[in-house]
Amino acid sequence: DTAVSQTPKYLVTQMGNDKSIKCEQNLGHDTMYWYKQDSKKFLKIMFSYNNKELIINETVPNRFSPKSPDKAHLNLHINSLELGDSAVYFCASSRGGGNYGYTFGSGTRLTVV
Amino acid sequence: GENVEQHPSTLSVQEGDSAVIKCTYSDSASNYFPWYKQELGKRPQLIIDIRSNVGEKKDQRIAVTLNKTAKHFSLHITETQPEDSAVYFCAAASSSGNTGKLIFGQGTTLQVKP
């Protein structure tokens, strides 16, 4: 039983396309996150939702739009993909509140060609 | 702004030796400090964490120390084994907004040579 599952695991697409990544957690956590891991392995937060409410929206191009239909799901839609969007995108969940670790999904490796 | 600095960026040790990774953080109100291990091609996994009301925590071969005054925390791995080879990330919880946001260090690639 995977705690935090992401699909797809790999995504190869052309510049200008629109794509979505999906994430689901079965841990009963209230908070979910999207992080981007670049080629230098740096993990940078993009968005966070707490019980369907957007609580973190870092400086991310507005081509990226998160959506949380319920507290167990968090999706990421990316419009007009650019070469620089190539990275690994990790979904994570936590109990929230600033004092709990994350459980990460397995990641989506996005390659824009 | 919130920042976590991690050193060294790479660390190579012989099997059986100890490894130490150090982090400093800028937000003096941070009160939660987890460490993650990421094996090649895998997800980051929580290996140990420490909260600001304690100075040290140990779990078998790994330990974490925290110096709140100096805003430093460190990961210590004793009797290293080849399977400890991975990228290790420290993190500090942001104190703003009670969002659970973690600020990660840049990562340390640990290589344990058999």
Question: Gist?
Answer:
The complex is a heterodimer of chains A (113) and B (114). Chain A is mostly beta strands and 113 residues long.
Topology:
The complex is a heterodimer of chains A (113) and B (114).
Chain A: E1 4-7, E2 10-13, E3 19-25, E4 31-37, E5 43-50, E6 53-57, E7 64-70, E8 73-78, E9 87-94, E10 103-104, E11 108-112
Chain B: E1 4-7, E2 10-14, E3 19-25, E4 32-38, E5 45-51, E6 56-59, E7 62-67, E8 72-77, E9 86-93, E10 102-104, E11 108-113
Parallel strand pairs in B: 2-11
Antiparallel strand pairs in B: 1-3, 3-8, 4-5, 4-9, 6-7, 7-8, 9-10, 9-11
Oligomer: heterodimer
Element order of chain A: H for helix, E for strand: EEEEEEEEEEE
What is the overall pLDDT average of chain A? 93
Structural class, from helix and strand content of chain A?
A: mainly beta
* Radius of gyration of chain B (Å): 14 Å
Figure out the total of helices of chain B.
0
Order of helices and strands of chain B: EEEEEEEEEEE
SS strand fraction of chain B: over 45%
What is the distance, rounded to the nearest whole angstrom, between the alpha carbons of the first and last residues of chain A? 34 Å
How many strand units of chain B? 11
- Sequence stretches where pLDDT stays below 50 over 5 or more residues of chain B: none
Strand content of chain A: over 45%
